[in-house]
Amino acid sequence: GYVFNYQAMKALNEGKQMRSDWLIPICSGSERLKVDGEKAHATQKPEALLYRVILASTNRGDVILDPFFGTGTTGAVAKRLGRHFIGLERERRYIDIAWRRIRAVEVAQDDALAVTPSRRAAPRVPFGWLLERGMLAPGTHLYDPSRRHAAKVRADGTLVTTGATGSIHQIGALVQGAPACNGWTFWHFEQAGELVPIDVLRQQIRAEMRPH
Q: Across the chain, what does the average pLDDT equal?
């Protein structure tokens, strides 16, 4: 399998989908490692590049292999983000520089290393589970945010509206005349006079399913 932390990358880019072409400054200034005033490595990579790659493609505690370790940019960023690493390098002078560099890196606290999870990684919760747990009752009316559309919940987790029966997604699409619909965000139930998305109930179940 593979890891792609789509939501984390989107969050890193202020809520917008990250493009596949990245504009990252070259390694310079105080980040550039030097020995006796000369560049320690001719092609030292910027930490910003490895930060983005590691955040996008690994999870906390994963092991990263860099077969061309150089002065340890991968290892330094991996340690900072709570990942493990294996680095391969044949030049002794680069190994010494990398070792000193990585030893100086401080690891952030565990709660700071958490990233926005991918929606696909979240456990699946069928709508029927809300009925089984008594969070909604058969006969409950659901509405869209403007109360323009309504449907009634049946005991088997389907919705019924004028002349049609189907899932929360099917009926949501039908009443809008749309090709598809995310029923979890479209349908709302009434609570204390306010409309609340049924997705709130799904998230409550997901929270119970997470390991503590």
A: 91
